Amino acid sequence: MNELVFFINNVIISGSVTGSIYAIGAIGVTLIFSIMRFAHFAHADMMTFGAFMVLLLTAAFPAAGASFGIPTALVMLPLAMVITAALAVGIDKVFYKPLRAHGVKPIVLVIGSLGVTLMLQGLIRLFAGTGGQSLYVDDRKEIFRLAVPFEGVRAPIVITEPQIYLFILTLIAVVALHLFLSRSRLGKAMRAMSDNPELAQASGINTQMIVAVTWVIAGGLAAIAGTLLALDVTFKPDLSFFILLPIFAAAIVGGVGHPYGAIAGVCSRLCRNPGGIQLEHSTTPLSGQPARLVRTAQQFGVCEQ
Amino acid sequence: MPLLEARDVHGGYGGMNILNGVNMLLEADQVGVIVGPNGAGKSTMLKAVFGLLHVNQGDILLHGEPIQNLAPNKLVQRGMGFVPQEKNVFPSLSVEENLEMGAFLKPANVKRMLTKVYEFFPPLAEKRRQPAGELSGGQRQMVAMGRALMAEPTLLLLDEPTAGLSPLYMNEIFDRVKEINAAGVGILMVEQNAKQALAIADKGFVLAAGQNRFTDTGAALLADPDVAKSFLGG
Ligand SMILES: Nc1ncnc2c1ncn2[C@@H]1O[C@H](COP(=O)(O)OP(=O)(O)OP(=O)(O)O)[C@@H](O)[C@H]1O
Ligand SMILES: [Mg+2]
């Protein structure tokens, strides 16, 4: 029984936590790729930016959560999502759209997004400093210890409040995205544009608008993922270095270039294991990543068998 | 007032001009057919009409109003529909979703037009949930035409709608084109099956090297020995 509890704590819960965070990020990356055909490397920094907005808002109104009975950071999340979505649309207008208008190769956009990464990270560092900060300003992180009613079991199952919110929000995001893509007129137009942009235009679909909608969705989701990551761990300006490659791994495993790929990516992440521990303790973020990328792909193969 | 008028249209894909002065006149309710050798600029001319190609000289008028270099979605709003020569369906979308995309600008139309299109192309009704990428060439052509019809165009541009189809399907498509036209939709189509196409054409345009070589009624072009010798294979 002790082994089972250990397995639940360290594999199922922590694996699903990182899996969910990667998945929400990967949805954005995949949507952007399927509409604009480039790998958006600044995505992880949009996540950090979203968390940073929550940090600012939480610091400004520390008591707001108490009246709802949830962490202040979650009360501020919708506003942070709006701001991050606006930032995403703005970045597209200023940086990516002019490049697309010149008909550049995708690699140029990728390099451009690396520039955006550095710019965003510098911007956040300028205001937030370089150290870690907790998103719990006025309130405390609740930790639930569920005792297992069997003889000889020493350790409880441990799950924290932000982890529960994370699961709930991931579920909502995935179901909402599925309904949006399969039912709504705009969602179908998005899939159509991903299939064949010229024909989408010839059908009267306003492709500029679809691009903007893509950024709004990707930006909003990035804010959710970043905030939940920062709640689970801590807020740091260089959070993106820890999550960028896993996000791309999740997106690739799920199938880049197709809006539905991200949802498959979610499932693959959920059957992946011990991510959570590494995320908190990894001290060499970049060097370890390629190995993890490879391992992720392998693990998915194992999961499927 | 003519439905479509092209006057001395020049244009290309950035480098050299491909169109070197094309003229066309099509009245409402007419079928216009563009024929000519491979690479003559037939597809390019349709793209120019539909705003997919930069026109750097000349005018294109729809109902008497200049439309050259308007964006395609604006032209769809003005009643134009376009079925490209290749890649004319959304492969991962179901047949029904493909059709819905045709009415993207007129969401109120969807229900009524879906019924109409399924009546018009009965094979599509059975396949409505199937991804368009899994259909045969002829069925795809029906999806593509159905998609364009969803917006209730007044002018339909078709680029080689019978390419690669068996004779039976080919006749089926020609019949459909005639029916669409009989319902009051002007048609401008490019065809390789020149004899059959000219037989249903009110206007025929023989293009070569980006210019009109012959322009007349379909019947007159078919009867012209010069046209027959150089463009219809004797
Ligand atoms: N996207 C493009 N970019 C650059 N040049 C092009 C492009 N498409 C066509 N061309 C050139 O334009 C010329 C005319 O091509 P177009 O497709 O209009 O011919 P077509 O008459 O439709 O021929 P076909 O009967 O083979 O379809 C060709 O010389 C071709 O090389
Ligand atoms: Mg052609």
Structure description:
In chain A, helix 1 runs antiparallel to helix 10 (261-270). Mean pLDDT of chain A is 82; it is low at 273-305. Helices cover 72% and strands 3% of the residues of chain A. Chain A has 305 residues and is mainly α. Chain A is built from twelve helices and two strands. Chain B is globular. Chain B has helices at 42-49, 72-77, 95-102, 110-120, 122-126, 137-149, 167-182, 194-199, 218-223, 225-231, and strands spanning 4-12, 17-26, 31-35, 54-62, 65-66, 80-83, 155-159, 186-190, 203-208, 211-216. Chain B contains ten helices and ten strands. Chain B folds into two domains: 4-79 and 153-231, P-loop containing nucleotide triphosphate hydrolases (Rossmann fold), CATH 3.40.50; 89-147, no CATH class. Chains A and B meet through helix 6 and helix 7 of A and helix 2 and helix 3 of B. The site of adenosine-5'-triphosphate has 11 residues of chain B, from helix 1. Residues 13, 18, 36, 38-44, 85 of chain B line the site of adenosine-5'-triphosphate. Chain B: Keywords: Amino-acid transport, ATP-binding, Nucleotide-binding, Transport. Chain B: InterPro entries: AAA+_ATPase (IPR003593), ABC_transporter-like_ATP-bd (IPR003439), ABC_transporter-like_CS (IPR017871), BCAA_Transport_ATP-bd_LivF (IPR052156), P-loop_NTPase (IPR027417).
Keywords:
heterodimer; A: 305 residues; ABC transporter involved in vitamin B12 uptake, BtuC; two-stranded antiparallel ribbon; 72% helix; globular; B: 234 residues; alpha/beta; Rossmann fold; 6-stranded mixed beta sheet; 10 helices; binds magnesium ion; ABC transporter ATP-binding protein (chain B)
